[in-house]
Amino acid sequence: MLGLLRLLGDILTSLPQLVLWAIESAVNALVAGVAAAAAALLALLPSMPDAPALGTPEWLQWLNWVYPLGTAVTAATGLLSLYVALLVLRIALRWVKAL
Asked: Which contacts qualify for 60-68: CB closer than 8 Å, 24 or more apart?
């Protein structure tokens, strides 16, 4: 008789956990169903073509001939990387000085 009461008590104790598990399983099944439906709908769509290649405008070609922008961007990138290296070196030297 005590074993039956203990079993009933264990079931009543674990009932909230079982309810939570059932809710989580239902939500997971719902999310999986929505994902499957979205995948099925997207599979029905036709494939998108690639974007057409855009040519370089004539004014940009003239500007590159007068002032080479590629070289200027390369030089600016180099200067920026040197500046960042200087900042990192300053921080490292301050740490060494603090020791």
From this structure: none
pLDDT of the chain, 99 residues: tens digit per residue: 778 888 888 888 888 898 999 999 999 999 999 999 999 999 998 888 877 777 778 888 888 888 888 889 999 999 999 999 999 999 999 998 877
Instruction: Quote the pTM value.
Output: 0.41
Domain that holds residue 20: 1-44
How far apart, in whole angstroms, are the C-alpha atoms of residue 89 and residue 62?
41
Residue 67 and residue 38 share a domain: no
Domain total in the chain: 2
